[in-house]
């Protein structure tokens, strides 16, 4: 058990009485922990168990009282020319068919690179990643009326190079972020701007249909490792294996239970968030928008973290409580539904695979003005744990089962989302003494859409 905690938390010294959430744990790592413990000890451990028994000692006592449950590995899919798309891929594919020029689901990112950059190694690292991950060699098509994905053995890939000063970066970025044709792999673009001999800017852009937030972490981590000469272990599984497992095995075994949970959660009338607006709601929604950045001071941040420890919650739960109360006060409504993205990687075999496994779940909470905040936070904690325990039920399937009619001016089920970004992976140990990567904001003209 100790070795599993060390691996998930990325630290060597862990006491059996230390609280998981006090030593770097969060909901994403709790999901990884539950999956790893289930695999190693052949018991059914859920993310809620990590929240309820958040020390090695308490979790070990819980496991002793659980029945042995054979852990099922995900097996590689048979080799075929085409594969059905996953549920998440279908949703994005159909939306792209309706508006091929939309850039909403582009995922651009940029890094300033300080130091002596080897262009050959830079290019070789990306070509190695394309060879390593089938998602980076996948295109999307219709086949006999069904949306399918095709994995190519080889794809043409070239990096765009420019030379400019800082004043010219903006125009280059604007031209770089452009629509993808989903029938043409790879759905990855990479560019490199030479600012000076010792400074460059790296740009890359992926379409969401082949990646999610964790996929971008995997890509960046492995890019740096390959650039610095590390030989990576071969992948046993690829995204198509997840897609086939989800379609043929997982949904057949667990869909009924999770379906009952979510249908019960939405058994009453589903509220529509009535936020006050400066202008009338348009007939059709657009994804035009912007981002507003601000920084919480250290004192406030530490106070929030301390509150989460004292209440056996997480920073996410504390902030979600505040956000939900804010929406209630602004709208004058008590029944509030907030969407939140979850990684969807509840099986340990999926940890290093690039692809879209993310799912949206709905946090429905009742804001009672007569309750004190601590009571509301306790309810948020319980509702969040239950939602995470049922997080793999596909959002699009929930919409279908509820029979909700989509309104062109609104999103389905919720009009507000809340997410707290957490890094699952610890920083890899590799020599970066002669080169430094500094993140830089790169936008696509729309707010982030999951």
TrEMBL record:
Record Gene3D superfamilies: ACP-like, Chloramphenicol acetyltransferase-like domain, Nonribosomal peptide synthetase, condensation domain
The Carrier domain covers which part of the protein? 1-67
Give a GO cellular-component term: cytosol
- Enumerate the UniProt keywords alphabetically: Repeat
Question: Source organism's superkingdom?
Answer: Bacteria
Tell me the CDD domains matching this sequence.
LCL_NRPS-like (cd19531)
Q: Name one GO molecular function term.
A: phosphopantetheine binding
Cofactor requirement: pantetheine 4'-phosphate
Which GO BP terms sit in this record? Answer: amino acid activation for nonribosomal peptide biosynthetic process; lipid biosynthetic process; secondary metabolite biosynthetic process
Which InterPro entries does the entry mention?
Answer: ACP-like_sf, CAT-like_dom_sf, Condensation_dom, PP-bd_ACP
The record, for PANTHER family, names: FATTY ACID SYNTHASE, NONRIBOSOMAL PEPTIDE SYNTHETASE
Protein's name according to its UniProt entry: Carrier domain-containing protein
Which organism was this protein described from? Cohnella faecalis
């Amino acid at each position: 058990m100790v070795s599993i905690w060390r691996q998930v938390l990325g630290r060597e010294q862990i006491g059996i009485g230390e609280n998981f959430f006090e030593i770097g744990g969060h909901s994403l790592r709790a999901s990884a922990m539950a999956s790893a413990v289930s695999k190693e000890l052949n018991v059914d451990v859920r993310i809620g168990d990590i929240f309820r028994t958040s020390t090695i000692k308490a979790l070990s006592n819980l496991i002793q009282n659980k029945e042995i449950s054979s852990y099922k590995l995900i097996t590689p899919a048979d080799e075929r020319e085409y594969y059905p798309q996953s549920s998440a891929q279908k949703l994005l594919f159909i939306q792209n068919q309706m508006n091929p020029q939309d850039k909403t689901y582009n995922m651009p990112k940029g890094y300033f690179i300080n130091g002596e950059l080897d262009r050959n190694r830079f290019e070789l690292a990306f070509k190695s990643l394309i060879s390593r991950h089938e998602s980076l060699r996948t295109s999307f098509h219709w086949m006999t009326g069904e949306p399918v994905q095709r994995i190519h053995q080889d794809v043409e890939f070239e990096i765009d190079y420019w030379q400019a000063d800082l004043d010219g970066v903006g125009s280059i970025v604007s031209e770089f972020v452009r629509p993808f044709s989903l029938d043409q792999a790879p759905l990855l673009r990479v560019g490199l701007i030479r600012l000076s001999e010792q400074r460059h800017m790296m740009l890359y852009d992926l379409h969401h249909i082949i990646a999610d937030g964790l996929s971008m972490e995997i890509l960046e981590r492995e890019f740096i490792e390959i650039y610095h000469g590390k030989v990576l272990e071969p992948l046993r599984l690829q995204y198509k294996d997840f897609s086939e497992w989800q379609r043929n095995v997982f949904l057949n075994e667990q869909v009924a239970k999770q379906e009952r949970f979510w249908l019960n959660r939405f058994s009453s009338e589903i509220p529509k968030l009535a936020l006050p607006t400066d202008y009338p709601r348009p007939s059709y929604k657009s994804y035009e928008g912007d981002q507003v950045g601000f920084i919480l001071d250290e004192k406030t941040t530490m106070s929030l973290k301390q509150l989460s420890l004292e209440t056996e919650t997480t920073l996410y739960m504390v902030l979600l409580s505040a956000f939900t109360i804010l929406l209630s006060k602004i709208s004058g409504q008590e029944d509030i539904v907030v969407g939140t993205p979850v990684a969807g990687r509840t099986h340990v075999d999926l940890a290093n695979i690039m692809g879209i496994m993310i799912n949206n779940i709905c946090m429905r909470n009742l804001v009672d003005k007569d309750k004190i905040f601590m009571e509301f936070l306790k309810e948020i904690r319980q509702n969040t744990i239950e939602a995470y325990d049922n997080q793999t039920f596909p959002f699009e399937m929930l919409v279908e089962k509820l029979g909700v009619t989509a309104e062109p001016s609104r999103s389905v089920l919720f009009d507000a989302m809340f997410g707290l970004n957490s890094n699952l992976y610890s920083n890899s140990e590799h020599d970066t003494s002669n080169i430094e990567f500094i993140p830089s904001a790169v936008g696509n003209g729309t707010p982030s859409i999951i």
